[in-house]
TrEMBL record:
This is B box-type domain-containing protein. Keywords: Metal-binding, Zinc, Zinc-finger. One of its GO terms (molecular function) is zinc ion binding. It comes from the Eukaryota. Coiled coil: none annotated. Residues 65-111 form the B box-type domain. Residues 109-125 have a biased composition (Polar residues). Pfam families: ANCHR-like_BBOX, DUF2009. Residues 30-47 have a biased composition (Basic and acidic residues).
Length: 391
């Protein structure tokens, strides 16, 4: 039709790859950044060297040891003070740092108990000051009552369950990370800061190229020739975010791949890599709150039925089969009601249900992993005397 012919040619390609809206200056800047990235990856241009370990040294200086703790490990209470170094150490760290050389001749003094235990004792007493007769805090508001902001705050930290389309992207992410040797090639001894940055860029771009090529062969071929990774920034962010979200919901999965992913994402946001890569591959995790708020349905988190719709049906041996079946039917009806009530043009009823199921998954995970720990703490504080040794 005539209306279809009048559309700009770049519109059908998609929002990520459409370039007809960009100005000539933006295209020239992108082209220059891509050319520089290509020269760095091919080894024809060196990365400016900011000094050996400059970023790591600044980070180490910013992380000071808490008062009363070892200056080296920052975890154990300081027991020994080195007069020459003017630092406090635990016994193990002092022996490791002063076992040979001129440091072996350093003199020491004992750290006073009031100084060494000041910070640790105060925090420990606050942590162990538990009212044994106080009941455990309720997991969620009672069913039918106004939840207030309880679910609103919890939803900010609950990831959204993966859809079937996202699980396809998850398999792609896992496959690419499983064959990557990022940590083996980057974490090697003897590299200068410039060489390390160049290696980081090479490995990061290799992973990004694999993700794009596996998604679309033609796009991957164009990226290899043009080095225009920024055109695929949104797609790359989505794939890597799906991998992180899956790991949060399933801590036992991606044991090897997740470490590579996190190290790569951390290196990608350093100023040296960011300046040359000219794009961000990190995006915030999609949570239930952000998902609903972006679609104008955040009010579902304050509905009185959300407690019933997201609670876990626990067969604890006390409830009868009829009671368990009744709670299951109530939960199903609450989910259907909330899905129909808050469905709109911006969000479907299935998307509302997806968020409710995601919150239910989180409740089930906490019930299986947190509640046993809470019970054990109660047993230890109520049934055992810390000042008396029992056979």
């Amino acid at each position: 039709s005539a209306a279809r012919r009048s559309e700009p040619p770049g519109e059908k390609i998609g929002p990520v790859y459409s370039c007809w809206r960009r100005s000539r200056q933006e295209l020239e800047e992108m082209s220059e950044a891509a050319k520089r990235l290509g020269r760095v990856l091919d080894g024809h241009e060196e990365v400016p060297d900011g000094g050996e370990g400059g970023g790591d040294a600044a980070m180490a200086q910013s992380e000071a040891a808490p008062p009363g703790f070892c200056v080296e490990c920052k975890e154990k209470v300081a027991r020994t003070r080195c007069v020459q170094c003017a630092d406090d150490y635990c016994r193990v760290c002092f022996q490791m740092q002063h076992r040979k050389g001129s440091r072996a001749k350093h003199t020491t003094t004992k750290v006073s108990a009031s100084i060494s235990r000041g910070g640790a004792a105060q925090s420990s007493s606050e942590m162990m000051d538990v009212d044994e007769d106080a009941p455990l805090a309720s997991f969620a508001p009672e069913a039918g009552s106004a939840p207030g902001n309880w679910f609103v705050e919890r939803a900010k930290y609950i990831p959204v369950r993966l859809t079937m389309a996202e699980r396809k992207e998850l398999r792609l992410c896992e496959a690419v990370l499983s064959v990557s040797d990022y940590t083996s090639k980057i974490d090697t001894v003897g590299k200068s800061k410039a060489k390390r940055t160049q290696a980081q860029l090479q490995e990061i771009c290799a992973v990004l190229t694999a993700l794009i090529t596996a998604s679309d062969y033609n796009d991957g071929r164009d990226v290899v020739e043009s080095r225009q990774y920024k055109d695929h920034e949104s797609r790359i962010q989505d794939i890597l975010e799906i991998g992180r979200r899956h790991k949060i919901m399933n801590p036992e999965k991606m044991r090897g791949e997740y470490g590579k992913l996190i190290y790569m994402l951390q290196d990608s946001v350093t100023p040296e890599v960011q300046h040359i890569l000219d794009m961000r591959i990190v995006k915030p995790i999609t949570t239930v709150h952000s998902y609903l708020a972006a679609r104008g349905a955040a009010a579902v988190l304050e509905d009185s039925l959300i407690t019933t719709a997201t609670r876990e049906i626990i067969a604890d041996g006390v409830k009868s089969r009829q009671q368990l079946n009744r709670e299951s039917r109530e939960k199903h009806r609450a989910i259907e009601h909330l899905g129909d009530k808050y469905a709109s043009r911006r969000i479907t009823d299935e998307e509302v249900k997806l968020c409710l199921y995601s919150m239910g998954d989180n409740h089930s995970f906490l019930t299986a992993n947190r509640d046993p720990v809470d019970k054990m703490i109660v047993y230890l504080t109520r049934l055992f005397d810390p000042d008396q040794i029992e056979p």
